[in-house]
Amino acid sequence: MGRRKSNNNQCSSSKEDATMSNHLRFEDAEEAVEESSNLDQSMCDIDESDDKTSADYYFDSYSHFGIHEEMLKDTVRTKTYQNVIYQNKFLFKNKVVLDVGAGTGILSLFCAKAGAEHVYAVECSHMADMAKEIVETNGFSNVVTVLKGKIEEIELPVPKVDIIISEWMGYFLLFENMLNSVLYARDKWLADDGVVLPDRASLHLTAIEDADYKEDKIEFWNNVYGFNMSCIKKQAIMEPLVDTVDQNQIATNCQLLKTMDISKMAPGDASFTAPFKLVAERDDYIHALVAYFDVSFTKCHKLMGFSTGPKSRTTHWKQTVLYLEDILTICEGEAIVGSMTVAPNKKNPRDVDIMVKYSLNGKRCNVSRVQYYKMR
């Protein structure tokens, strides 16, 4: 089976219900992106001492324009937010908006242009300084106020806001754990009848045939120029790979794992255990599980959002590939049954720990195993 377009990075420092899962088709975002800049993660000043924490490096990474360029050029992502704002001006007209993790301020500018009374753009990285200049250059200083600092530490000049908007999603939805910053802002500043955008997120799972790439990325360590380096293989298989999966590799159904209602959920709800049952749609080999997410804006005139799945247009999030230790030989109609447990890493909450239990009792293959993964 043909391999997906290769991006060999391992992950580094960075629907509603079943009826909405893979059958939900959002309106396509247009190709063009308005000239402006970005939005993203809750970020903050870097400690210039030598003993930086992983969180410091996380914030520092968002101080560089390159990461914002990549996100802005993700037209599925940026154009969807623009469409949500411009096509639903009734939500923003004369409203006070809080943009959490504003990056270069593109969401704040969208909101200002849509008629918001005032927008508070909170950005913790050094990109906040550029955001202020961008706001001034585009003539929105009277509407957009850029506040530099962590959302958990800054003070707003208003007691409540009408809308909280943010692009908080990371790889595997939860990598980098910015969701908690959005929930903190919601609990502290959102008015009782306020709106969180986006307000729904869902995580999905499927299984793929991936012999060639698993051989290249994992089995490679068995024989490196005649030497056994399989100790590295054990580490490599524990690190999920962020890459683009060819939809033709998918050999099972796609299963909804978890739906999050951002307007109501508690911070602890991002840790969960969810069962799955992946039923083979053809006879094939299974080398990996693949996770992806969808986000929805349900307060719009009509449902809007996007999917990061392999059957949708490619985004910078791509998909998350979790290689299995076993090669599963599966026949059409047989099922891989198991559960996935997801939680932030205790030492670094921006990393994600994943435990997968799976079993297959088929005509050609019987296996039961537990595997651990860490996104970092």
Briefly note the structural class of the backbone. alpha/beta
The name CATH uses for the topology of the largest domain is Hnrnp arginine n-methyltransferase1
Fraction of residues in H or I helices: 10-25%
CATH architecture of the largest domain: Distorted Sandwich
Distance between the termini: 29 Å
CATH class of the largest domain: Mainly Beta
Low-confidence stretches: 1-25, 27-50, 52-59
Number of strands: 15
CATH homology group of the largest domain: Hnrnp arginine n-methyltransferase1
Region (Disordered): 1-45
Keywords: Methyltransferase, Nucleus, S-adenosyl-L-methionine, Transferase
Domain Methyltransferase: 97-171
Organism: Vigna angularis var. angularis
Write a brief structural summary.
The chain is an alpha/beta fold. It has helices at about 55-60, 65-70, 75-85, 90, 105-115, 125-135, 180-190, 210-215, 230-240, and strands spanning about 95-100, 120-125, 145-150, 160-165, 190-195, 200-210, 240-245, 255-260, 270-280, 285-295, 305, 320-330, 335-345, 350-360, 365-375.
Structural account:
- It is a single chain.
- By secondary structure, the chain is α/β, with parallel strands linked by helices.
- It folds into two domains: 53-166, Vaccinia Virus protein VP39 (Rossmann fold, 3-Layer(aba) Sandwich), CATH 3.40.50.150; 199-373, Distorted Sandwich (Hnrnp arginine n-methyltransferase1).
- 21% of the residues lie in helices and 31% in strands.
- It is built from nine helices and 15 strands.
- Strands 6, 7, 8, 10, 11 and 12 form a six-stranded antiparallel β-sheet that branches.
- Helix 3 runs parallel beside helix 5.
- The longest helix is centred in the N-terminal third of the chain and has 12 residues, at 75-86.
